[in-house]
Specification:
alpha+beta, six-stranded antiparallel beta sheet, six-stranded mixed beta sheet, binds alpha-D-galactopyranose
Length: 409
């Protein structure tokens, strides 16, 4: 997929100046690749779905807690041409690689990017949602394997294409849940709802707070006149991510079961507070207790961050991000030397208001709120100091909050 990040730099080399995938280029590619699209050019649609960066609320979604993700202007785009033959076929703009499947015989996962499309189709069919065949050309500005939810973006863009390319009959939350189920049950990754939710329901200019138990959500605007959202990719592969992620989930479930044995009303860590963790200390093994402690305190930090952003209290936002990072490092054990190094550099750089690891962890990215006039200096600090301490090459993205998946007009 093309690397066309407008504001991204890797090491000391700017990777390009085109931040968006030109819709005209995608349309030309789909009509070129699929001659039938030439007969009805008016039926070709360009769909987009953003990646996400989570401000705070990590490993809380599958524990029925709170998350505060931002949909970002690194995204997946599909130029699609609906067909009536129940076949789905997509070609990658960058490499020309093609993959597809029949909607009437989706089969099981193959082990490639098409699984996210097939899983979404499978889940839409399971939900009784009408699906249509299409031919498409796919491009992305989202780095893969960086923890910025390129999979969720592909799922949401595919959901729109599978719905026929027009506005789907289903609302964003329903589409997000369908996509999550596809990833859980078809692809086999036990993720929570956050990534698909963020891609479906992004807010231009801000984040969206989701209560993963009630599914209520509300926009949280960011002070973007003063602060910039900067994502630093550690450049380290997210090794063992899937197995370690599932292990963390199991540890959280172990804590819930131990407490629920004496407090039957407890269904998830959302029903647990620190007093309970103290009271049932002897029932919990140290690992389950540490994981639960992270989740319980992280939920409070999400709500406190929302309030601090509303009040323009950047000191408090910075403290909450720092506490979140420490808790993820020490109690949830999902940080890495590379992520700690990025956060340490951020903490020592003037104008960085807040910094922490974002997403699942085990590598991937940090999220930073940086005073606009200090972004260039921060970028320079990361690009100089990080390779020196870690031997790795960072990529720095200055990103903007955007709206959720939909048609490119
Ligand atoms: C991954 C998962 C999300 C969430 C985060 C951690 O991104 O896909 O559902 O659990 O990790 O907060």
């Amino acid at each position: 997929m093309p690397t066309t990040e407008r504001r991204a730099t890797t090491g000391d080399a700017t990777t390009g100046d085109a931040g968006v995938i030109d819709p005209a280029r995608l349309v030309a590619a789909v009509t070129d690749r699929y001659p039938k699209a030439r007969e009805r050019p008016e039926a070709v649609r360009v769909l987009r779905a953003p990646g996400r960066v989570n401000l705070i609320g990590e490993h809380t979604d599958y524990n029925m807690g709170f998350v505060l993700p931002v949909a970002i202007d690194l995204e997946v785009r599909i130029a699609s041409f609906p067909t009536d033959d129940r076949q789905v076929e997509m070609t990658l703009l960058e490499t020309g690689e093609t993959a597809g499947f029949s909607l009437d015989a989706i089969g099981s996962r193959r082990g490639g990017w098409i699984d996210y499309v097939a899983g979404t189709a499978w889940s839409m069919v399971a939900a009784g949602t009408p699906v249509h065949g299409f031919r498409g050309v796919l491009a992305s500005t989202l780095p893969r394997g960086a923890g910025l939810s390129s999979s969720a973006a592909l799922e949401l863009a595919s959901a729109w294409a599978l719905a026929g390319g027009g506005a789907p009959a289903l609302d964003g939350m329903t589409l997000a849940r369908i996509a999550q189920r596809g990833e859980n049950e078809y692809v086999g990754v036990r993720c929570g709802l956050m990534d698909q939710f963020a891609s479906a329901l992004g807010v231009p200019g801000g984040a969206r707070l989701l209560d993963c138990r009630s599914l209520e959500h509300r926009p949280v605007l960011l002070p973007l006149d003063e602060l910039s959202l900067v994502v630093c990719h550690s450049g380290s592969p997210r090794r063992l991510e899937a197995s370690a992620y599932n292990e963390r989930r199991a540890e959280c479930e172990r804590a819930v079961s131990a407490i629920a044995a004496v407090e039957p009303a407890v269904r998830s860590l959302r029903d647990v507070d620190l007093a309970m963790l103290e009271r049932y200390r002897s029932r919990l093994d140290p690992i389950a207790r540490a994981r639960a402690w992270h989740v319980v305190t992280e939920n409070d930090r999400v709500l406190a961050t929302e309030a601090a952003l509303r009040d323009g209290d950047f000191d408090t936002v910075g403290r909450l991000f720092a506490e979140s990072h420490q808790s993820l490092r020490d109690r949830f054990a999902v940080s890495s030397d590379a992520l700690d190094a990025l956060v340490a550099i951020a903490a020592g750089t003037e104008g960085v208001v807040a910094a922490r690891l974002t997403g699942a962890g085990f590598g991937g990215c940090t999220v930073n709120l940086v005073r606009r006039e200090r972004v260039a200096a921060f970028r320079a600090a990361i690009e100089q100091d990080y390779p020196r301490t870690t031997g790795l090459r960072p990529t720095v993205y200055e990103v903007e909050p955007v709206g959720g998946a939909g048609l490119v007009s």
